[in-house]
Amino acid sequence: MTNIDFDHPDYYTGIEDVYDAFETEGKQVKKAIFAWGDDQWLRRLDVDVPVYYYGLKDTDDFIARNVQRGPAGSEFDAYHKDDLIGHFKISLYGEHAVLNSLAVVAVAYTEHLSASLIARELATFDGVKRRFSETDVADMTVIDDYAHHPSEIKATLDAARQKFPDKEIVAVFQPHTFSRTIAYLDEFADILGTADHAFITPIFSSAREKSGSVSAEDLAAKIDGGKVLQLDNMQPLLEFHDAVLVFMGAGDVQKYERAYEDALKANRS
Length: 269
Hints:
Blueprint: H1 15-26, E1 33-36, E2 51-55, E3 62-70, E4 73-80, E5 83-90, H2 95-110, H3 115-124, E6 133-137, E7 140-145, H4 150-163, E8 169-173, H5 178-183, H6 185-192, E9 197-200, H7 216-221, E10 227-228, H8 235-238, E11 244-248, H9 254-267
Parallel strand pairs: 1-2, 2-3, 7-11, 8-9, 8-11, 9-10
Antiparallel strand pairs: 3-4, 4-5, 6-7
Helix pairs in contact: 2-3, 4-6
């Protein structure tokens, strides 16, 4: 369990409701749970199996120490309490990638796999589809990511900063559902405001809701320099050169990516 966040506000009534769902699932586990130690809700789990916490602090059961993050990826030493398990390198970016990898180490170590085997396999993993999927187009780097919750957006932008520390980071975000946008309007604005530039597309609805009392303009207005991006006008994005465009969303944000890439190729051919 990597975290418990309030989400899907069209279904859950609040964070306590989400927590209850996680705990209900946890009570069905037969062997053990591995959970992120910094999440206050995960620390509250009342279940019938051992809960092993992983993280960056000495209060965790499995700890990543000597973490190094750079343009080539990340590496860290993994400990079980005070016992060194081994040194691990990953070709992934962002603090969340280190934590996820540590969780893998913790599970594999508990299942008595050797540190050398764990290290070898982690080193070959280069991510999954729609999670920091990277494409080079002309002089631009285009990143496609499924991020649609504030914590996910924060993780994606953190990863982009790590891999491209010297480039402008341009966020293009498609809000997913009106209820989620309303629930996290300020949080979305705060996180997207950490990018060098932020563009908001029209909100993508869902099968459960077709309209709402919030718009892309409302979110963009809360971001310093935030702008609304329409599918039929990619010109605002064509002003950037040698930069990183991060397209994020759980709807059909990829149609904006395709429109941008087509426009970019035509403009710089």
